[in-house]
Design goal:
By secondary structure, this protein is mainly α. The chain has 7 domains: about 170 residues, P-loop containing nucleotide triphosphate hydrolases (Rossmann fold), CATH 3.40.50.300; about 160 residues, no CATH class; about 120 residues, Serine Threonine Protein Phosphatase 5, Tetratricopeptide repeat (Alpha Horseshoe), CATH 1.25.40; about 60 residues, no CATH class; about 70 residues, no CATH class; about 90 residues; about 70 residues, Arc Repressor Mutant, subunit A, CATH 1.10.10.10. It is about 60% helix and about 5% strand. The strands form 2 sheets. A 5-stranded parallel beta sheet has the order 2-3-4-1-5, with helices on both faces. Strands 6-7 form a two-stranded antiparallel ribbon. Helix 9 packs parallel to helix 11. Keywords: DNA-binding, Transcription, Transcription regulation. This is Helix-turn-helix transcriptional regulator. It comes from Metapseudomonas boanensis.
Length: about 850
């Protein structure tokens, strides 16, 4: 047989062209190159880039040899038809021997590497075709490699190939685009699309490349009067439904209405036939049923595909489907799925009845808080308020969501069920009412003594089986102690709550209480213990099979806070974004802490516009989620002032700081917010810094000394370090002899605690302007001296930024600080003043 060698260029030239807007997949190409397997099999639904990846892989071969690409189009073909196509590509005649032997003679014993690509292998190939290829793979062919793309795993002896190291397989999960590649594709196809559109497409397509392209193709430019063409439906007709048997297609269309499906569910839905076998056929044919667990039990139809298929059955048929699925879910104990199906079927009373079955810790798991809040919007109030259990569940959910006005209404209506005829039930209901009222009052912050009294009285009468309200009362008492100036009382309450959670085997509530413990440790500066407790809490959550987004989000946000304290900005940013995303998905108002952290991070980088943008978005989210105003307004204002302080815009701080201060002084002072117990102290620190900036150093010194003593009494050591560093600034401004010692002590303590973020803020002098006759050498930081020197040499802000590798905004910030510290308003005056002080030659 003649040996025809083709060079790399001619081999690659025979390949199909790559699609426009191609996103390279180097990781997957490397994966295919990593193992020189005899068979490389790509098995996934239509549109996951199987053919394109094979094309890209072959183009990456330094010496590809001979490439034979056969597009089989998923159609059945005989061994003889395959031989005819292969012989035509090789420009050879078909050997007059049995097909299996002929196939081996055509491909074997060649002096070059031969790549045979069977693109879109038939869904139902004849058995003799499978036998031919099985025989081909069973024979060692040193220079032959087979690459196959298919929508159904071929019936070859794949286990034998796997054991021999001759099989490399990629499935749907491996072939799906990751988020970064999704963004690359969006940049190529729709570079001006908004983040919201990109995120929605990602959620709908889950890495399905063709789905992204088809969805974007259907989007019309703004102002267009034409009707959009549904390319996705047309694609599914050709590439999916036309390849399925009628009963398979009808089954898939029905399953598109359900949140998750399984063989058992299908057997229940199609009792007259073999529903389980029907579902297994859909799975085998890669019909966009994506796995939801590692056991291969539960699946769901890919969201984009499900949406496109749902309109193909009537509303009445869909309702019947939802009802049957509802009965199956409730029988299997999957209450939340049953509730959703009952709502979809319009059975509101059934949905409300199922709500009463949810367990005590259900609210804090997965994304259940978001689910319940969404169900509240779909259920009439007359049903939500129909029983004490429903009212209690809704009240706790609203408290967790900081929707305090709505929670108060629920709690008041719980009183309508009092008194109960049975004395024991009456005591129990009253105790639950007091627990709810105590937590509500604590969250409002206006009557801390009353909140604590309600919680203590509830603890006296709550039966042991109501362990969740008992635990939450202890948590509330601990947080009240932290927020009202007696943090030493908190550990005892938290220890009792922790014991209850452990005795009940509730990992969720153990982590919830750990979050309270973490807050106390952060206030006290016990950062090593904080980190250990965060790691322990992550380990506890990981013991559960579910993804508990609410608690994971909170843990990530407190971990980011620790990164910020240590000055680890890149690590903080990464974790902040992750935690914020999870909090928003779970409708958790703790997302506020994510926005506060991002604002602080960008302010430290001198990116003030971005900082304020995060604060505005935080306020918007709180409004949209109906969060009680005073749960977030104080901390948002505080963080806004901290950003302004970094800019040196002290004139805008005073009215806001004084307004906040009024809440925490007087005859009936408010308690600090439970989730930000240091707010009034930090507000006092800002006021003192403001007075120092205004030249009122003696007033500032008096305020700071009192604040320092208070922080030490509370054992809020990190905040005490910050106050002492500011006090040292005031002392230098007043030429106090002990100013240097104060600063040195504070720096040593901050260094010992690992507070690198604080030390960087105060490197070589704080950002607080000083006035009066002070030591010129200590007046400006090293960076400020460098900026001043370049200003004196006539450099522009842009040029200074280039020289010092900092942004223009950062240069402007340093310039403002220099002017303020030197007591001038313009840069020319600053240069003259610096020369007079001997700061410049």
């Amino acid at each position: 047989m003649p040996d025809r060698n083709f060079g790399p260029c001619s081999a690659v030239a025979n390949l199909p062209r790559l699609p426009p807007a191609h996103v390279p997949r180097p990781r997957l190409v490397q994966c295919l190159q990593a193992q020189d397997a005899r068979l490389r099999l790509l098995c996934a639904p239509a549109g996951f880039g199987k053919s394109v990846l094979l094309n890209e892989f072959l183009r990456a071969q330094p010496e590809p040899g001979r490439i034979v690409w056969l597009n089989l189009a998923g159609l059945p073909l005989s061994p003889e038809q395959l031989l005819a196509q292969l012989a035509a590509e090789l420009q050879e005649s078909i050997p007059q021997v049995p097909p299996a032997q002929a196939l081996q003679e055509l491909l074997g014993q060649r002096g070059e590497r031969v790549w045979l690509i069977l693109d879109d292998y038939p869904r139902q190939p004849p058995a003799d075709l499978d036998d031919c290829i099985d025989h081909l793979l069973a024979r060692a062919q040193p220079n032959f490699r087979l690459l196959v793309s298919a929508r159904q795993r071929p019936a070859w002896n794949l286990p034998r190939l796997l054991l021999a190291g001759d099989l490399l397989e990629l499935d749907t999960t491996g072939l799906a685009l990751d988020r970064e590649q999704h963004e690359q594709l969006m940049e190529l196809l729709a570079p001006s699309s908004s983040p919201a559109v990109r995120d929605e497409l990602w959620q709908e397509t889950e890495g399905w490349c063709a789905g992204v392209r088809l969805q974007l193709s259907a989007m019309l430019p703004a102002g267009s009067s034409a009707s959009p063409h549904c390319w996705l439906k047309e694609y599914l007709d050709h590439e999916l439904l036309s390849r399925l048997a009628p009963d398979e297609a009808q089954c898939l269309i029905a399953l598109a209405h359900l949140p998750k499906v399984s063989a058992a569910l299908c057997q229940h839905l199609w009792e007259d036939g073999d529903g389980a076998a029907l579902f297994e056929r859909l799975l085998a044919q890669q019909s966009f049923c994506m796995p939801l667990d590692e056991h291969g039990t539960w699946y769901r139809v890919l969201p984009a595909v499900a949406r496109a298929l749902r309109s193909r059955i009537s509303e009445a048929a869909a309702n019947q489907l939802h009802l049957r699925a509802c009965r199956m879910f409730i029988a299997a104990g999957q209450v939340e799925d049953a509730i959703e199906q009952a709502l979809c079927a319009g059975q509101l009373e059934a949905a409300a009845n199922y709500l009463e079955r949810l367990g005590q810790e259900w609210l804090t798991g997965e994304q259940h808080l978001a689910h319940l809040l969404a169900w509240r919007a779909r259920l009439p109030s007359v049903l939500l308020e129909s029983t004490p259990r429903l009212l209690t569940l809704n009240a706790w959910a609203l408290l967790l969501a900081w929707r305090l006005d709505e929670a108060e209404v629920c709690i008041e209506k719980l009183g309508h069920f009092l008194p109960q005829l049975d004395p024991e039930r009456n005591r129990r209901l009253l105790a639950n009412w007091q627990a709810l009222h105590g937590v509500l009052t604590a969250l409002r912050g206006q009557w801390p003594e009353m909140a604590a009294q309600h919680c203590r009285q509830a603890l006296e009468h709550l039966p042991e089986r109501d362990w969740m309200p008992i635990l939450l009362c202890y948590s509330a008492l601990a947080r009240i102690a932290m927020a009202s100036g007696v943090p030493d009382q908190a550990p005892a309450y938290l220890h009792k709550a922790l014991e209850i959670a452990r005795r009940q085997g509730s990992l969720l509530f153990e982590v919830l209480i750990n979050l309270d413990r973490i807050r106390l440790l952060l206030l006290r500066g016990e950062f090593n213990r904080t980190e250990a407790l965060i790691e322990q809490s992550f380990a506890l959550i990981n013991q559960r099979k579910a993804i508990d987004g609410l608690l994971l989000g909170r843990l990530k946000l407190v971990r980011a806070e620790l990164h910020l304290i240590r000055g680890e900005l890149p690590a903080a940013e990464q974790v902040l974004l992750q935690g914020l995303d999870q909090a928003l998905e779970c409708a958790d108002p703790f997302a506020l802490h994510g926005y506060l952290g991002l604002a602080e991070l960008h302010a430290r980088r001198g990116e003030f516009d971005q900082a304020f943008q995060h604060l505005r978005e935080a306020e918007r989210q709180m409004h949209c989620r109906q969060v009680w105003r005073y749960s977030y307004s104080g901390v948002l204002n505080l963080q806004s002032m901290r950003v302004l302080a970094r800019q040196g815009r002290w004139e805008r701080i005073e009215p806001v700081a004084l307004r906040i201060q009024r809440y925490f002084i007087g005859e009936r002072p408010w308690m600090a917010p439970l989730d930000y117990p240091s707010l009034p102290l930090r507000n006092q620190l800002l006021l003192a810094r403001l007075h120092l900036a205004a030249g009122k150093a003696e007033q500032a010194e008096t305020e700071l000394q009192a604040l320092l003593e208070h922080c030490k009494t509370l054992h809020f050591i990190p905040l005490a370090c910050e106050v002492q560093l500011t006090l040292a600034e005031a002392g230098r401004s007043l030429l106090r002899a002990n100013a240097g010692n104060l600063e040195r002590q504070a720096r040593e303590q901050a260094e010992c605690l690992g507070m690198q973020g604080l030390l960087r803020d105060f490197s070589g002098g704080s950002d607080i302007p000083t006035h009066g006759n002070t030591d010129p050498d200590a007046l400006l930081s090293q960076r400020e001296r460098a900026v001043l020197q370049l200003l004196a040499e006539g450099f522009s802000n842009q040029e200074i930024g280039t020289c010092l590798f900092i942004s223009v905004n950062t240069v402007k910030t340093h310039t403002k600080k220099i002017n303020s510290k030197l007591g001038v308003k313009r840069r020319t005056q600053a240069v003259m003043r610096a020369k007079s002080l001997g700061l410049l030659a």
